[in-house]
């Protein structure tokens, strides 16, 4: 989102030349807006960093599962990573061939895994019981990848750290012999190894540590096609944030991977599964200011949204820059920005913003990842509409909820349809 001068008036925020306030007028608020150009830019950045290896990018769809976003990813040659059968189905609906979809379940029922196998996606096995079940049920008929927990942790919010020893994700590196025993017992075809240490790693070191674990275990399997390093690239949420140096990561990991392939005896594919890295910066949540409330200790800006639309600040203590789209050049004042939910849903505390008045449109930045995908109808509130800006034009890609949507699935119980009131 760029602040651009407009003829005859003050500067206005624009996305690909589209006036942001016009989006609020056209589609209503609250509103999620996604910039397709930013997604394409991040895809190019990743490909450029790993240009020397046989790279496959698998978009982690849980970050933002709108089918139009999946279609954009497919159009750009990005494949897909899913964590549920319904995400996988959405991928097929978006035009992906099942074999382009990785399925990495965590603690799901074997019935769901069976559905995924019947769909034809690539199964990534997350536990010894699942590996045993696959062997007992399918023998060598279903090629699998195995997710290894490398017992690596390097900061970041514990809720999104997945590679430490106490994490529920993956098969512990210390259970290597158990993996080998089950694979040998049933003749399971292992075609890939996977590691995902979580989000917010700042440098190549964590990836290289995880790579060393996988490269060592890879010697147990002779028919591998790929090594999958998951993701975890750190993005900037505010000025001065340390981010993953993708170019440095690409150079160092590519060299390590090429050296491994030489030792292994043939070239394999290198997979990454970025979610937040690809869509975080593309997203803007536009909201309207309901009121400005002066208290003795602070000034509150109350907006027409809350944790039901963007839960990350409350769940992860995450920072999202806030822009006053209506008054971008106003004098700075200190505000605490809060939502309209009957919970403490504080988006930002003591934040310096251009002067805010009732009716002003604000934008929460970096809202593309885990914004709408974690949204709910809590307090019987509607989920926002979603708009994609593509080649300079806005497209509605999800309608705003209606009251009928809130009632959909509820079942009327006739015995309760009575005027009788019991005291």
Low-pLDDT ranges: 155-164
CATH class of the largest domain: Alpha Beta
CATH superfamily of the largest domain: Alanine racemase
Quote the average pLDDT. Answer: 92
| Number of structural units classed as domains | 2
| Major β-sheet profile | 9 strands, mixed
- CATH structural fold name of the largest domain: TIM Barrel
Q: State the helicity in percent bands.
A: 25-40%
Notes on the protein architecture:
- The chain has 423 residues and is an alpha/beta fold.
- It has 2 domains: 2-34 and 280-407, Lyase, Ornithine Decarboxylase, Chain A, domain 1; 50-274, TIM Barrel, CATH 3.20.20.
- Helices cover 28% and strands 26% of the residues.
- The chain is built from 12 helices and 21 strands.
- It has helices at 20-27, 36-49, 67-75, 85-93, 110-119, 128-138, 176-186, 204-218, 246-264, 276-279, 312-316, 403-407, and strands at 2-6, 9-15, 18-19, 31-35, 55-60, 79-82, 101-103, 122-125, 144-149, 171-172, 190-194, 226-228, 269-272, 283-294, 299-303, 322-324, 332-338, 346-354, 361-364, 385-390, 393-398.
- Strands 4, 14, 15, 16, 17, 18, 19, 20 and 21 form a 9-stranded mixed beta sheet that branches. An 8-stranded parallel beta barrel has the order 5-6-7-8-9-11-12-13, surrounded by 5 helices. It has a 3-stranded antiparallel beta sheet with strand order 1-2-3.
- Helix 2 (36-49) packs across helix 9, helix 6 (128-138) runs parallel beside helix 7 (176-186) and helix 8 runs parallel beside helix 9 (246-264).
- The longest helix is centred in the middle third of the chain and has 19 residues, at 246-264.
- The N and C termini lie far apart (58 Å).
- The model is unreliable at 155-164 (pLDDT under 50).
């Amino acid at each position: 989102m760029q602040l651009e001068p407009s003829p005859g008036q003050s500067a206005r925020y624009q996305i690909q030349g589209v006036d942001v306030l016009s989006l609020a007028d056209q589609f209503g608020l609250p509103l999620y807006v996604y910039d397709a150009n930013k997604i394409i830019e991040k895809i190019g950045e990743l490909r450029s960093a790993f240009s020397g290896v046989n790279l496959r990018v698998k978009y982690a769809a849980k970050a933002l599962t709108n089918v139009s976003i999946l279609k954009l990813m497919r159009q750009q040659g990005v494949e897909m990573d899913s964590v549920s059968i319904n995400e996988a189905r959405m991928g097929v609906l978006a035009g992906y061939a099942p074999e382009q979809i990785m399925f990495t379940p965590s603690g799901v029922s074997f019935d769901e895994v069976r559905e995924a196998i019947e769909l034809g996606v690539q199964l990534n096995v997350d536990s010894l019981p699942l590996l045993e079940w696959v062997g007992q049920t399918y023998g060598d008929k279903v090629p699998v990848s195995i997710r290894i927990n490398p017992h690596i942790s390097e900061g970041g919010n514990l809720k999104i750290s997945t590679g430490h020893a106490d994490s529920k994700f993956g098969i512990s590196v210390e259970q290597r012999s158990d993996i080998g025993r089950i694979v040998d017992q049933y003749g399971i075809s292992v075609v890939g190894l996977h590691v995902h240490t979580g989000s917010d790693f700042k440098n190549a070191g964590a990836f290289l540590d995880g790579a060393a674990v996988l490269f060592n275990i890879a010697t147990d399997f002779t028919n591998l096609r790929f090594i999958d390093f998951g993701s975890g690239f750190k993005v900037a949420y505010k000025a001065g944030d340390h981010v993953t140096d993708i170019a440095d990561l690409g150079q160092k990991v590519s060299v390590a991977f090429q050296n491994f392939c030489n030792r292994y005896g043939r070239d394999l594919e290198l997979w990454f599964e970025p979610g937040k890295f690809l869509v975080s910066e593309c997203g803007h949540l536009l909201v309207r200011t309901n009121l400005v409330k002066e208290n003795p200790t602070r000034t509150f800006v109350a907006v027409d949204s809350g944790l039901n639309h963007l839960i990350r600040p409350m769940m992860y203590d995450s920072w999202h820059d806030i822009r006053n789209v209506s008054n971008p050049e106003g004098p700075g004042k200190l505000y605490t920005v809060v939502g309209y939910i009957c919970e403490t849903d504080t988006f930002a505390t003591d934040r310096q913003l251009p002067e805010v008045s009732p009716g002003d449109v604000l934008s929460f930045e970096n809202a593309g990842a885990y914004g709408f995908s974690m949204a709910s109808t809590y307090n019987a509130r509607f989920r926002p509409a979603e708009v994609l800006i593509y080649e300079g034009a806005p497209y509605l890609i999800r309608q705003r909820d209606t009251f009928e949507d809130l009632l959909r699935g509820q079942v009327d119980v006739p015995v309760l349809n009575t005027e009788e009131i019991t005291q």
